[in-house]
Amino acid sequence: MSSIRNDHEVARDLAGEAGQQLLRLRARHGFEEPDVLRTLGDRTSHEFLFSALGRLRPSDAVLSEEGVDDPARLSARRVWIIDPLDGTREFAEAGRTDWAVHVALWENGRLAAGAVALPAQGSTLSSADPPWLPEERPSGQRLRITASRTRPPEFVQKMATALGAEIVPMGSAGAKICAVLLGIADLYVHAGGQFEWDSAAPVAVARAAGLHASRIDGSDLEYNALDPSLPDILVCRPELSGMLLGSIRDVADLDGAGPQAAG
Q1: Could you give the 3-state DSSP secondary structure of residue 214?
Q2: Does residue 2 register a pLDDT over 50?
Q3: Name one Pfam family in it (predicted).
């Protein structure tokens, strides 16, 4: 870690190292006790990230899915928002690669840096070097919507039918947003429950790459709030955002979408 020069690199390097630790834990423990593996994964990654941030950025606050929420973060200028293991279910299933590590920095009211490690896919996407976004989608290509493999919102199926789109189910929210960044899908949409740590890092990378990211009513995604619940999200190519937000309004009960479970 001695070569770290800026916040983008801190996010990238810490997410990547946490991911490597999780891969080693997976290989050592195996999959016969998935509940134990999930618990170990959450704890191992959280303890590493929390300790490393305390050493590298001792003046900054930390908001972690696996940590105690310190109210001091609300008056802090800089807050690291981390999900030590996004897609815990998938992490404990042999052969699955759709789980991630999220590390993001919120500074003075905005996301300033972020990284998403996809350890089982051998990559880390970060704001230090965001993926290149092709100028145009291939003409005539069917829209591909990535959504929760276990808890897809009902409106997503209605939306897919209306748009003639294909649904691509995946686990981790970070893996789904990275699928949009990598051209595997054209959009990710979710409602029904998430928290800041589910989206902060992938949104930081997505915005650095030029993607649209908002709530499903088009309003901004706000981080480091008193209540860390951030229950819905749309990430897509910018030229699709107007059409997709209109489609969501047509098929979703926006007043009825509330926090239930991450996806």
Answers
A1: strand
A2: no
A3: Inositol_P
